[in-house]
Amino acid sequence: xxxxxxxxxxxxxxxxxxxxxxxxxxxxxxxxxxxxxxxxxxxxxxxxxxxxxxxxxxxxxxxxxxxxxxxxxxxxxxxxxxxxxxxxxxxxxxxxxxxxxxxxxxxxxxxxxxxxxxxxxxxxxxxxxxxxxxxxxxxxxxxxxxxxxxxxxxxxxxxxxxxxxxxxxxxxxxxxxxxxxxxxxxxxxxxxxxxxxxxxxxxxxxxxxxxxxxxxxxxxxxxxxxxxxxxxxxxxxxxxxxxxxxxxxxxxxxxxxxxxxxxxxxxxxxxxxxxxxxxxxxxxxxxxxxxxxxxxxxxxxxxxxxxxxxxxxxxxxxxxxxxxxxxxxxxxxxxxxxxxxxxxxxxxxxxxxxxx
Amino acid sequence: xxxxxxxxxxxxxxxxxxxxxxxxxxxxxxxxxxxxxxxxxxxxxxxxxxxxxxxxxxxxxxxxxxxxxxxxxxxxxxxxxxxxxxxxxxxxxxxxxxxxxxxxxxxxxxxxxxxxxxxxxxxxxxxxxxxx
Lengths: 356, 132
Description:
Chain A is α/β, with parallel strands linked by helices. Chain A has 12 helices and 14 strands.
């Protein structure tokens, strides 16, 4: 078997024309989960706190707000959007697309492609790669790619500390209109059963420590290294880097293994204060970087989705970022909007109390 | 089962799409095809900015059918920047006290489900304390 590490590069250059973030208001401190289930061990908590959606929020409502923020920055006619793709593992319906509701709400319907993606935590970057293809082949001028989750964590499980809500939307379009050009992407996928949720099950299952080396680290390292090798770059060529962030430690460690410094990953490392937003995690980090980046800055993004795979992106910021990024709320604006809740309120908000 | 009604109202509910009167330029919400100001025919769609302020409000403790699981919640009369007065829930209040005159902005949220957990999900406008 030959190794094909050719980068995925569209024939027409593409980029990010607009981006938007969303993080819900409520925060559940990890120590509160710990108090409930582990007897307040206080040391070794995976994050500080996680973002929790309100009673009236779900993947559709959060996607609408993120997409509206992206539209504010893109300043395009919604009728020119030819695809709305939303990646998530918490779509509100089992059958009925989230994407049609989002497309309707942002004014992109009806002359538009719409579909819901699913690939655990990399469903959002999956949508981005597809949007690059649609725009890069000139089939469409603009395509919307969204990654957002309201992640489920079984009460008392290790994932309950981190399973959070949030995500980001991107309008992919021609490079000459972009506030950041996507040079290329690269995807690395294997059949690795590290985490899954069977049909009709409420909570996912995971392979404990199997989620680390053979899953998260293997796929991110392979995708990241292939991107660096095939584009003839190394960590020092990038201003910023962002990796999928299921906790605080994993992205810090994988960054170090690929040669990135703590300074390069700090602006995009949001998991300590909002948790793991699953399909939203890596790309929400990207929005936080775009909020502070300067023209010419180069950004490496590597997502990870269980099951398992990684998508890597090589992105360069253009001058247009500076004139457009203040047109919508920034990622840190949402993070700063914070109301702490206790475990009982969390249990109610997340539907863990059955009323009948 | 009220599926046709929810389907018909989706644009005004998701995005505050009302109308503008071509005769006197008054902005109309909800859309009614006849201008309440000049009485002329008015069916030109107009998307509201979603910005406004709390005109009055009350807190619901005994919620009507379909909203019991959200109580207690706050309902407000919101005076939109463009003029019309809209009744809607306030959301994302956290520990923010509600005050008359408070600036608010529209967000699209899940209003309720049609019937039980097998029913369709109904989305529409609510207002939250302005972040912008």
